[in-house]
Amino acid sequence: MIQVYPDPEELSRAAAAFFVDSARRAARAQGRFSVALSGGSTPRRCYELLAAVPLSEQVPWENVHVFWGDERCVPATDSRSNLLMARQGLLNHVPVPGSAIHPMACAGDPEAAAVAYERILRDHFGAAPPRFDLVLLGLGTDGHTASLFPGGDALDETKRWVVPAQLPGQDFRRLTLTLPLLNQAHQVLFLVAGADKAEILARIFGPSTAAKPLPARCIAPAGGAVLWLVDQAAFDGLKDREQR
């Protein structure tokens, strides 16, 4: 399902409201809310809205467990760190218990970090299915999401929940959740803004002739739901293609 908003601000407000509703529902139903945050520029405003009144007063923060969909293996003080962005925009301003914040610490050995983070996830979910209540995802202009890149080995993983990944040409590695885990989520929320995303959005929702689908197109939770929140600039590419 796609919901279209006139600009990134309205998109961010819708995403923040969705977060609040998801958190309240999960806390009532099972006593906790497990969410995987996204990095990148688009979610930042959503986090800022959640950190401010009135929304900050509507989330049962004591029941929130925060994870990440991916992380760049850089120091936590590096401006490229997804953890740093989430702390500055949200986590430093709301009463989430420190023990319920689960960052991906991968500045050292990414392979060992992947194993360690999977252990954290398994301890959290225990014998229950590994089912995030909400996963926030973005969309790259190449069709990647989290750190699942077209042609990357991480996209082919069928068993592990967390693996290292790397984008060719970058001088750092990454950690990413994999499709076997992401596709167990109860709800996945894509946040997509900007005219530079119009072409790739049209490709994701159009017919595919490629041998391997784009990573974002592979997000299809079993028994869950995917919702795309898209601003008008990004949606125009899809609309234009449909009208041809």
Mean pLDDT: 94
| Domains (count) | 1
CATH topology: Rossmann fold
What is the terminal separation in angstroms?
21 Å
Low-confidence stretches: none
Proportion in helices: 25-40%
Class from secondary-structure proportions: alpha/beta
Shape: globular
> Which percent range describes the beta-strand content?
15-25%
Per DSSP E runs of 2 or more residues, the count of β-strands stands at 9
For the largest beta-sheet, the strand count, sense and barrel status come to: 6 strands, parallel
Question: Could you characterize the architecture of this molecule?
Answer:
The chain is an alpha/beta fold. It has one domain (2-243): Rossmann fold (3-Layer(aba) Sandwich), CATH 3.40.50. It has helices spanning 8-30, 42-51, 82-89, 110-125, 179-182, 198-205, 232-243, and strands spanning 2-5, 33-37, 64-68, 70-72, 134-137, 162-165, 174-177, 187-192, 225-231. The strands form two sheets. The chain has a six-stranded parallel beta sheet with strand order 1-9-8-5-2-3. The chain has a three-stranded antiparallel beta sheet with strand order 4-7-6. Helix 1 packs across helix 2. The chain is globular. It starts with a strand and ends with a helix.
